[in-house]
Amino acid sequence: MTTASLSGVQLSGETDGAVVLTLSRPPANALSNSLISRLTTTLEDLARGPNAPAVVLTGAGDRFFCAGGDLKEAVGYDAESMAERMIAFHALLCALEKYPRPLVCAVNGWCVGGGIEMALFSDFVYASSRARFVFPEVDHGMLPAVKGIVRVREVLGDRGARRLLLGGESVDASEAKALGIVDEVVEPGELLEAASAQARAAAAKPPAVFAALKLALLQETAGWPDEKQLRVTAADARTVFTDPAARAAREAWNG
Q1: Residue 19, phi then psi, degrees to nearest 5
Q2: How confident is the model over 153-164, as pLDDT tens digits?
Q3: First to last CA, the chain
Q4: What percent of the chain is modeled with pLDDT above 70?
Q5: Rounded to whole angstroms, how far apart are CA atoms 77 and 56?
Q6: CA geometry: angle at 17 spanning 16 and 23, to 5°?
Q7: CA–CA dist 191, 154 (Å, integer)
Q8: Of the listed ranges 4-8, 21-25, 193-197, 211-215, the one predicted with least confidence
């Protein structure tokens, strides 16, 4: 497997329809402006075209998945600079949310602030048994992105969101699973392979069907009138029933 390094981001060669995207900014994989921009651009580039790969997102080393925003960089900002930074981070969350193919997060250590927000916009989250999760912004004079706050509340519910966002306490991997942040907890040495296996399995599913399901989950379809739900259903049916991979899956199931 070959790996390309892109200014704090390492991108592996594709294996069975999946790539590994690694945050590589020692010592803690903190999100600088340049790293946020590079991650967003990389995801947008990967998403282009009909053969976008599944992505496993992880961090270099075994102590940090991501330390959240780079406080050393941010300490010299004025209000407008911070606003621009948050606009860029919002764009990153959108790129994660809208990625059309499987996106699996492999949390290999501390997952802090924006790192949790990134994980919550993944399709599946695997965590090392040594991982810990914390939103320290309330103690550091910072704020998460509103898009991230909304997602935290959707996943954890109101009480869980208040506990982490307002209390600033950390939770271990097992409790993060109980709260709904994490899908599976595995031993550290098994993490990347377990997450990659999930990505490869999901990548084998018909791309048009997977993308349509992700888009439906993303949209607030419950509030749509019946007529709009019907229009989208019909459009999705036309897309899926003309897609060769989906057709092959149907034929294999029936055969």
Answers
A1: -125, 160
A2: 999 999 999 999
A3: 35
A4: 87
A5: 32
A6: 105
A7: 26
A8: 4-8
Please list the active-site residues. Answer: 137
Distance of CA 96 to the CA centre of its chain: 5
- One-letter-per-residue 3-state SS of 8-32: CEEEECCECCEEEEEECCCCCCCEC
Distance CA 198, CA 195 (A): 5
Find the Cα–Cα–Cα–Cα dihedral 214, 216, 217, 223, rounded to 10°: 170
Q: Token digits for 233?
A: 């259903």
Which helix (H) or strand (E) segment holds residue 185: the answer is strand 184-186
**Contact (CB, 8 A) for 96 and 145:** no
Helices (H), the chain: 33-47, 71-74, 79-98, 114-120, 137-140, 146-167, 173-179, 191-203, 207-218, 226-240, 244-254
Look up residue 122 and give its two tokens: 């993944």
**Nearest 5°: CA angle at 164, between 66 and 98?**
55
